[in-house]
């Protein structure tokens, strides 16, 4: 299913080996491993726990605490829609509603085809451009329900 | 290449770099902050560079951090002369370069509300009414070039602290400046340093809080992106004051550009001997690293932030012991906000009186605000403490767009509250704002027009708090859930008269019985809304009516035919084809097709949809 490739595992092991000795480095290790694997399947969590010499429960505890980390696989494109105050006041609720309907994806979920993961986030710090949507690494400001859908059409 | 600097070499480098920047060769400063990246400044900068080379290479193109006017980005400033161009596109590059030192390109200039083109930055009220102190280098330096920062006096305060002052003297200077923490609570910075300096121990930490979790706030991001050395210098001076050798900058991972610029700045400072061992040959050593957060609002709270750096769940712990005694890894620790630290270098360099003489008695200096929401000039502004909110909103911000009116201004994020329009003469001063029912907070100012429903906004903040509570204490975890449920019911038209009392009772318990600042302040948005906009709650409950026409369940989706002016704007706005309209006819809404998106409500200039 979502088994990791040997290359991914080797990269993850290298990250663990590099940070093993540094106190407090678990979150850094998790961040780098998520960059490699996209999310945290159980085998990865167990491997990190073993490598860092930590209880599996502790690693799960940290993964589930921070919103950056995901236990579920992500879609091909990450769509982050800001639901901070400035964006809310400028109508992001309507943008989110329309994107959900148009692409058949719930906030916090991934569409059936695996095209998009839709993630509401709390303020991207680009409030001057509210409402703000970030697709992968591209920031789009001043989106409307229409323009947001149009922008997303451009990502296969 | 470069050698490690001593004090004399730092000053020589400043003079050399300054002379290089002050030659009258034309220069184009193009904003390269997150906001302008989104509006296309990366291809613009490439085009400007290409054009400059093509036109003989005499014009230097310099990438800067955020200049504050993000909503009109990409923003370009021409020097000498200070001409400001807005919304510049790559295709404009040839004209921009050709205009250096000559006539400005008329069509790229800022236009005032009357439509007149304004060339000079200093003639635009948005800039003219500000006092840049923290943001003094915005739009003027390349944040990835330490030489530019040094030309503008970076690290001179550090040199003074190291060679001309004692650590006690540094603490005393900061105390005398009246500087209060800009991260929210406004705790006197000098006092915080004094406690940490007095704590025994040979290992101490200086931390910079760059988590900036407050929605609607982007001051810290802009400071880090435009002037990272100001923050590093502040941390170094704090380290001198308390005797620390190691620091961390806790920066949220949502800020990749800020992290990049900090990384570059740290490497450059190390290379010049401004970080690391034996700084400026003084014998003092300090180094720091960046720690990336992983997305949890509560990690901005100081004890939670320290747990997070230790690699654990970011859960707050009870105080005392205070971090000044037992902080990170149990050692004495000072934690300060980005903006607080960015102001320290200039205080030491210019003396406490320079800071103490600006602002009000209890709130000295300036404050950076992120102005956003329903306001014409969105952006980053810095004004003297004591400036009335109305100056911020109406003069600098240019008022509320369209025909709408300002209803309230939200300050302090989820820990704060809303100040109604009739109290806009309230000065920005810690005490005065608290008296008006909000808090200064970190500086997010969100202007809301009369189409904002205050019950819905209270619900919005409770939703935020519910998401972000770490769940450690029951009153915060469960109490805020009850509050959210009640507010949701009221917005859905199912509110009951006893609900307001229940909200207030819950608020009292949550405020008293929560462990950390998140729970202790979580009810503020509700209490402030109840204080200033109680009638709106009552309209929702008693009349099942949303006066701002925002709560979908309470709307009828009907056009009042007697008031309809047959303009058809609702028809054009409707994405679902649910508005039935033809020229010279009143509009009607087909409830079957309507998806309740409210686009028609927003489009109708005559407020005739109910
Ligand atoms: C829930 C919560 C979130 C906070 N988030 C931040 C933040 O994002 N940035 C910040 O500087 N301070 C934040 N603070 C305040 C810090 O805990 C701390 O008081 C501040 O960083 C101290 O720096 P200062 O004295 O320079 O203001 C938060 C506090 C609480 C209770
Ligand atoms: S008040 Fe809320 S956020 Fe703070 S420790 Fe308690 S549960 Fe966690
Ligand atoms: S609410 Fe939206 S869908 Fe319904 S009539 Fe108005 S614009 Fe059309
Ligand atoms: S926008 Fe308002 S006034 Fe114009 S046609 Fe629609 S309902 Fe009538
Ligand atoms: S509120 Fe959306 S970017 Fe800040
Ligand atoms: S990012 Fe360019 S002006 Fe703010």
List the defining traits of the structure above.
heterodimer, A: 156 residues, alpha+beta, 47% helix, B: 610 residues, alpha/beta, five-stranded mixed β-sheet, four-stranded mixed β-sheet, 24 helices, 13% strand, binds iron/sulfur cluster, binds FE2/S2 (inorganic) cluster
The string of secondary-structure elements of chain A, in order, is HHHHEHHEEEH
Which ligands appear in the coordinates? flavin mononucleotide, iron/sulfur cluster, FE2/S2 (inorganic) cluster
Uncertain residue segments of chain B: none
Q: Can you summarize the main beta sheet of chain A?
A: 4 strands, mixed
Provide a count of the helices of chain A.
7
Q: Which word captures the global form of chain A?
A: elongated
Separation of the first and last Cα atoms of chain B: 70 Å
Helix content of chain A: 40-55%
Structure classification of chain A: alpha+beta
Oligomeric organization of the protein chains: heterodimer
Classify the helix fraction of chain B into a percent range.
Answer: 25-40%
Question: Can you offer a commentary on this structure?
Answer:
The complex is a heterodimer of chains A (156) and B (610). Chain A has 156 residues and is an alpha+beta fold. Chain A contains 7 helices and 4 strands, in the order H-H-H-H-E-H-H-E-E-E-H. Helix content of chain A is 47%, strand content 12%. The mean pLDDT of chain A is 92. The longest helix of chain A has 14 residues, at 6-19. Chain A is elongated, with a radius of gyration of 18 Å. The relative contact order of chain A is 0.13. Chain A has helices spanning 6-19, 26-37, 42-52, 56-65, 85-89, 92-103, 145-153, and strands at 77-82, 116-121, 133-135, 138-140. Chain B contains 24 helices and 17 strands. In chain B, the strands form 5 sheets. In chain B, strands 12-11-15-13-14 form a 5-stranded mixed beta sheet. In chain B, helix 12 (256-271) links the parallel strand 8 and strand 9 (287-292). In chain B, helix 7 (156-163) crosses helix 14, helix 8 packs across helix 11 (228-242) and helix 10 packs across helix 11 (228-242). Chain B is globular, with a radius of gyration of 26 Å. The termini of chain B are far apart. In chain B, 56% of the residues are buried. Classes of the chains: A alpha+beta (156), B alpha/beta (610). At the A-B interface, helix 2, helix 4, helix 5, helix 6 and strand 4 of A face helix 2, strand 11, strand 15 and helix 18 of B. One iron/sulfur cluster binds at residues 573-574, 576, 578-579, 589, 594-600 of chain B.
